Amino acid sequence: MARHFLTVSDLSRDELVAVLDRAAELRELRGTPAHPQPLQGKSVAVVFEKASTRTRLSFEVGIHELGAQPVTLISKDTQLGRGEPIEDTAHMLSRYVHGVVYRTFGHDRLETLARHATIPVVNGLSDKFHPVQLLADLMTIRQHFGPSLEDARVAWIGDGNNMAHSWIASAAVAGFELVLACPSGYQPDEEVLCGARERGARVRLVERPEEALDGATVVTTDVWASMGQERETAERQRAFAGFIVDDAAMERADSEAIFLHCLPAHRGEEVSASVIDGPRSRVWDEAENRLHTQKALLEWLIA
Ligand code: CP
Ligand code: NVA
User: Fold this and answer.
1) Which domain CATH number covers 160?
2) What is the arithmetic mean of pLDDT over 182-191?
3) Is residue 289 helix, strand or coil?
């Protein structure tokens, strides 16, 4: 039975730590003759139903560096985009490639793909979760504060979206403390919260950003309107007033606090230019770490 990675909860804590440790090793080995090619002779499909820059680049480059052939499909140019069933797509992909990364809308589409595929399926972002981003975020936290993730206190400021859900799921696996400040009506999914709490996550929901920021060692946010929500942009801008991560917000956090953002960012909306381009921002390390962590993940899933 193939293992899949649809949410961070698909990994145990030991597996998560092993992937993050391996990512750090692969980072050191990158560009040297000692860099391994454990996927030599294999192929991995990367399928997009939504736009992407980082996910496409980091998977294509990473798959190549592991010795395999990346095959990128933009869904609208495929039969999947013309309504071919996901079940049939799963059977067909399983005969050609050794793994598939899939970026889609409804999380149920990923679950259907995973149910019918005999190869590992990796979530490249769904409306519910963006777990590969969290691997990179956790690697960045470790680079800054050391290996013990349990000591981190993460403040999420903004929408209770796929990234917020991924932080919640990760809190249960990695053991850090998480406080989310989301405007009323934009809170995370109750089922995601309950599931994580049942698995021991230390997660609190608060109403005001200040309540999340006090004592935070990691401050993070995301766009106010995610892909597919563009028509709600004006309404969301009104609802999220006061939820910008600016210098005053960072001042409330721990004096050593770092700022993370999955990107792309909207300067002047969810984050000020002074913060994202400032000394506490680790967003470029975070983006780079997509490459290392996904290579470690694919090696673990496919090799
Ligand atoms: N963070 C992230 O997934 O970026 P892309 O949408 O550019 O892939
Ligand atoms: N929440 C954002 C993340 C983009 C990487 C979206 O889904 O559009």
Assistant:
1) 3.40.50.1370
2) 98
3) helix
